[in-house]
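User: Here's a chain of 290 residues. Predict its fold as tokens.
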Amino acid sequence: MKTITPKDISTVDLQRYLQTAVGPRPIAMASTVDADGRPNLSPFSFFNLFSANPPILVFSASRRVRDNSLKHTLFNVQATMQVVINVVNYEMVQQTSLSSTEYKDGVNEFVKSGLTMIPSEIVKPFRIKESPVQFECAVQEIIPLGNEGGAGNLVICEVLKMHISEEVLDENGNIDQHKIDLVARMGSNWYTRANEGMFEVEKPLTTLGVGVDALPKGVVESGVFSGNDLGVLGNIEQIPTDEEVAEFVASNSEVQELVKQGNQSEKFKKAKKYLEENNVPLAWKTILAK
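Assistant: Prediction complete.
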């Protein structure tokens, strides 16, 4: 396994490793104004949600690695302590990329990118009309993490008002994860589109999973089950009883034959097929069959 000590490599190389390993990263399109009210727009992928009460978003306006310079966004939030964070969907990803061009101070990236400015209700920075969700924020604090190129400046933002496009809502008024069609940054020039890779994993909040350690000896070491398989098996709330297992075996001739042959590997493969069908109880009963 390749091992890296950050201080032993250049910041350029370190940043490349970090950005290609930590992702996908959501994108904050940060809209700000300077002290004279001139608009600025810039995307940041060092960004996430950190609290719901109070509602806090954080992005990092890092120093440029090549020359240690600071971004206009940072100067603007320092001057006004306000920002609008706009989320980025697939329909605006190319315009988002264009807005990252390092234009001179005072150039309006809304105009350059072709994105539409609309007034905010509380703060001075403008919202992006094309963005499906816009957060008007007060900047609570700016935390510098260093003085050299690549050092971040954490911009702590409290959400004062959210604006959500009706087009991305479901019948219950919640944001539909397919309709919003978010994109995120990877390393180098790569992005990812959430719609093309979404899947559901049930949260173990209402039940107490038995854990992987509750599986019979030999299951983990069998090589039949992946880590994901083991996680699903361990998330069951109650292991089937001996009576339930016996009843299942009595009604399943294929499992009966596998038990008769004493072929553990084939029995585990049968259990894996049940997992692929999302039938966890039958997978457990097959594993326990005897």
